[in-house]
TrEMBL record:
Keyword Membrane set for record: yes
Superkingdom: Bacteria
Subcellular location(s) per record: Membrane
Domain EamA: 16-144, 159-295
Segments crossing the lipid bilayer: 12-34, 40-60, 72-94, 100-121, 128-147, 159-177, 189-208, 220-241, 253-272, 278-297
Database matches in Gene3D superfamilies: 1.10.3730.20
InterPro entries (UniProt xref): AA-Vitamin_Transporters, EamA_dom, EmrE-like
Name listed for the protein in its UniProt record: DMT family transporter
Length: 316
């Protein structure tokens, strides 16, 4: 029996494109911000802005949150992985490597999530999907090692590269924890709770570090970069992406994430005069191709799993 689905509104596609642009811009804003304030202070103020605005949206749309103890624990885990630790790796990494090259490394994330889903949770794995994951990993290796993979074994990969690769691992953890939290929480409430708990952790760390209120060296560029990270990179970006996932499904929506490193490289060249080398560009193309292949293989893997379980296939 066939079902006719209504055409996707143009606004949804435009919001996904805008989300990719904003998320590409976070790499530029993050690099600018850590030039003027410490990474911990920049992250704390970013998520102060995000948690404040998201909290107002949650109250307006869903009323005052009444989370259970289990939900608070899940939100704390989301805040620790996807906000607190992720932003430490993200911003300290951006102190050491170019924004465009960092974004090309993080292009590996969807493939890493797919691999972890298979290894840890028994998700179906087709040959096409496995090929895509291996391609994405190869592309990441080329970017990280400046085109010479032997540097990895010689210990010549810098701390910045390792920190950005840590972002990949932490976002995978955030994704799987979020899968549990989404059973009882809306995407908006989950993003607010993660931002709130992560902001508390970042603020405590920045206060202990003594940098929370040390904003004397922050000019208009640093302050506007922090506001951009909180408002456009977190509130608008996450909200628009969540809406698109609900309307298009995770697979079709996540394909737009492949545009994030492209926007980051272009904005880095335009605004920061960054010059990404040929090896990084080639590696980025390989990584994005691998991620695209992984995403295209997902519906096929679902059909295989559905047939194996003798149950009707569910669409995203």
């Amino acid at each position: 029996m066939s079902h006719t689905h209504p055409a996707t509104p143009l606004a949804t596609w435009l919001k996904l494109l805008g989300t990719a642009f904003f998320w590409g811009g976070t790499w530029i804003a993050g690099r600018v911000a850590v030039r003027e304030v410490t990474p911990l202070a920049a992250a704390s103020w970013r998520f102060f802005v995000a948690a404040l605005v998201l909290g107002l949206l949650v109250v307006a749309r869903e009323g005052l949150p009444r989370w259970s103890r289990r939900e608070w624990l899940l939100l704390a885990a989301l805040g620790a992985s996807g906000i607190f630790l992720y932003n430490i790796c993200f911003l300290y990494g951006l102190q050491r490597i170019e924004a465009g090259r960092g974004a090309l490394v993080v292009a590996l994330t969807p493939a890493a999530v797919a691999a972890a889903d298979w290894l840890c949770f028994g998700a179906p794995m087709s040959r096409l999907r496995a090929t895509g994951i291996l391609l994405a990993m190869l592309g990441c290796l080329v970017v990280v090692t400046h085109g010479d993979p032997l540097r990895l074994f010689a210990g010549e990969v810098g701390r910045g590269e390792w920190l950005i690769m840590g972002c990949v691992v932490l976002w995978a953890a955030y994704t799987f924890i979020g899968r549990r939290a989404a059973q009882t929480l809306s995407p908006l409430a989950m993003t607010f709770g993660a931002s709130l708990t992560g902001w508390v952790m970042l603020t405590i760390a920045a206060a202990v570090d003594g940098s929370l209120l040390a904003l004397d060296g922050a000019g208009w560029q640093g302050i506007s970069s922090i506001v951009f990270l909180g408002l456009f990179g977190t509130v608008i970006g996450f909200t628009w992406y969540s809406e698109a996932v609900e309307r298009l499904g995770a697979t079709r929506a996540s394909a737009f994430i492949n545009l994030v490193p492209l926007f980051a490289v272009l904005l880095g060249a335009l605004l920061l005069d960054e010059r990404v080398g040929p090896a990084a560009i080639i590696g980025g193309v390989i990584a994005v191709a691998g991620v695209t292949l992984t995403n295209r293989a997902t519906p096929q893997a679902r059909r295989v799993a559905a047939r194996a379980a003798h149950t009707p296939e569910k669409t995203a």
